[in-house]
Amino acid sequence: NFYQTLTTGYMIFAGDFTLTTTNCLTTQRATATIASGSITGTSNTMALDTEGGASSDTLEVADYTGASKTGARFMLMTQNDSRDVTIDDHGTPNPKFIMAGDFTLDTNNDTILFEAVNGTTHNYELSRSDNA
Predict the structure, then answer these.
(1) How far is C-alpha 41 from the chain's CA centre?
(2) Which of 13, 28, 57, 68 could be cross-linked to 50 through a Cys-Cys bond (beta carbons 3.0 to 4.6 Å apart)?
């Protein structure tokens, strides 16, 4: 099934789906400042900044449980090349990160991709790219 969120509600398409050569699937980017180790997901690409403009910060929670966000696939990156954000896989609050060890986003070119599986309280790592 193909699910697409519209401004007027939801559209469900149960069948084959083909993108034509003149179209592509695009992502949206939003910014978020870490507050007490947490962000609320508002887009499928989140550019993160540290709390209070600190030189480094740790992210323990990315909450993608809001309306029309549950089940999202999302990518995290830094907003400022001079501020490092470490994604923590040891956090105890939910929705925590299930991943292969901590990962530090220390350049604007670093990315990490997660899936917030619908009905669960965790974010599961799909891939990471350290592009320093």
Answers:
(1) 7
(2) 57
Q: pLDDT tens digit string along 40-52?
A: 988 889 999 999 9
Is 39 within 8 Å of 50 (Cβ atoms)? no
3-state secondary structure at position 53? helix
Tokens of 51: 């709390």
pLDDT in tens, 49-80: 999 999 999 999 998 876 556 667 899 999 99
Query: Which CA distances in Å does 115 have to 20, 54, 59, 74, 91?
Result: 26, 28, 16, 6, 17
Q: For the whole model, what pTM was predicted?
A: 0.79
